Amino acid sequence: MVVLSNPPMEQFFMKPSKPSTNPLIIPDIPLIDLSKPESKHHLVKACQDFGFFKVVNHGVPVKFITRLESEAIKFFDSPLSVKQKSGPPDPFGYGNKSIGGNGDVGWVEYLLLNTKPESVYPDNLQGIVNDYVTVVKNMACEIMELLADEMKLQPRNVFSKMLMDEQSDSVFRLNHYPPFPEFQESKTNGRKLIGFGEHTDPQIISILRSNNTSGLEILLRDGRWISVPPDSESFFFNVGDSLQVMTNGRFKSVKHRVVANGTKSRMSMIYFGGPPLSEKIAPLPSLMEENEDSLYKEFTWFEYKKSAYKTRLSDNRLGLFEKSNNILRC
């Protein structure tokens, strides 16, 4: 049985959402089949319209997924005293319920890991995580190069080289959302149980895979939250803040959250592809049209990361780096 520490329970509930003015029209999550030649076009459109998409025929061997999930389950099923030997997170390590250092909480326990070769992981996870991250990073780079091809950017590794750099500041996260049998939505005035609060990812791209328990939701441009149907055989991609800046707002960093399930355990694994700390983040000159103004001030990944660590999850982290005389693209 998973035992988590106990902040006041009231903190774990979302306020009821306002009823949608058009609840029957729910757009489909963009589905990208990497085996199809037209996938490049669909990738760009998904990044522009949603900042989020699902990938099938991705080529990642199932064995890497099942091995990692099996070991992750073993880790999270361990006694709390065993798991706490890998914590507290600073920022890497094991944590539960408290997310970051600024007061955010969720019905979740997690393991945040550095992907650099010299990093130390809990027993039995080292080689398995390294194998998984390697194949997922390669898939991410393929996606990034297809995007560059469709946008006619040169060199075609303009995005992917930052993930392949030896100094890439990428991280890997295992999230476990345990069941909460005591929770009944009917007895909480329709409020949902927060698993992981709403946020955008600050990196370039995020690649998520989960088991078949629902919970992930994304925010549409019209202000509606929609549930993402789970699919354990596919990968889900989030555009990150850094990619939004590099495309000068053409691609959208999607706000997302996880609603915890009262009866089923949810397990997710996320690779966050980040640039080197010294990398300058700014709109790509080769992408800018004539007389197009930059929407953002130039900053390094280190500066943005440092700023993001000081914020709450739901804060607009890019707000401090937007040029005040510009309005973001719609």
TrEMBL record:
Coiled coil: none annotated. Keywords: Dioxygenase, Iron, Metal-binding, Oxidoreductase. It comes from the Eukaryota. It comes from Ambrosia artemisiifolia (Common ragweed). Catalyzes the 2-beta-hydroxylation of several biologically active gibberellins, leading to the homeostatic regulation of their endogenous level. Catabolism of gibberellins (GAs) plays a central role in plant development. Converts GA9/GA20 to GA51/GA29 and GA4/GA1 to GA34/GA8. This is gibberellin 2beta-dioxygenase. Pathway: Plant hormone biosynthesis; gibberellin biosynthesis; Hormone biosynthesis. It is an enzyme of class 1 (oxidoreductase). Its EC number is 1.14.11.13. Pfam families: 2OG-FeII_Oxy (PF03171), DIOX_N (PF14226). One of its GO terms (molecular function) is metal ion binding. It catalyses: gibberellin A1 + 2-oxoglutarate + O2 = gibberellin A8 + succinate + CO2.
